[in-house]
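Supplementary Methods. Inverse-folding protocol.

Structures were first reduced to a discrete structure-token string of length 182. This string, shown here, constituted the complete conditioning input.
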């Protein structure tokens, strides 16, 4: 919707911001916000970031956690085009925010050799029931790129060993990972 764009544009009015949003409905809201706030230096791209240029099935839950890796009951996927994030990291980047609902490890693995160009990173890591977890590998990529990290729980089940109280049907854990240079 553009809340992070608004936040960063307020703090850094001269910043150049590139925002990727694959969900057509959310992209319309983002575009309207960009127009209403008269954001200058903001480029909006209606595509999903990925580790390759392709198209993929995308499941929209109308804003809470739309995803290409997490399916939702009663939701038919739409096809979205993807763009390779690594293609945008060949120059200095002050802040990289990644909230891509389960594709973050794949993305960071593809961008690992370019992370030297990035000063600060925020990643929301997602763990879904029945799917392999990659938090350790994600943190290793960041450490090898020279980052220190701070972890903060974003969401977890109320009862870690029993219960089925998931967010977005099968999201069992979300961790905010804040990375900064040593």
């Amino acid at each position: 919707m553009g809340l992070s764009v608004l936040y960063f544009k307020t703090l850094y009015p001269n910043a150049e911001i590139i925002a990727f949003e694959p969900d057509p409905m959310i992209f319309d809201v983002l575009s309207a916000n960009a127009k209403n706030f008269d954001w200058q230096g903001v480029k909006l791209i209606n595509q999903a970031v990925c580790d390759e240029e392709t198209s993929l099935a995308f499941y929209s839950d109308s804003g809470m956690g739309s995803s290409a890796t997490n399916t939702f009951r009663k939701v038919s996927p739409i096809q979205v085009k993807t763009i390779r994030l690594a293609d945008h990291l060949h120059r200095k980047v002050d802040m990289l925010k990644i909230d891509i609902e389960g594709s973050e490890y794949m993305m960071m693995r593809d961008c690992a050799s370019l992370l030297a160009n990035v000063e600060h990173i925020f990643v929301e890591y997602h763990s879904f029931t029945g799917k392999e977890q990659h938090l350790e590998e994600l943190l290793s990529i960041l450490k090898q790129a020279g980052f220190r990290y701070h972890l903060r729980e974003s969401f977890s089940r109320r009862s870690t060993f029993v219960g089925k109280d998931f967010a977005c049907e099968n999201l069992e854990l979300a961790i905010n990972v804040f990375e900064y240079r040593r």
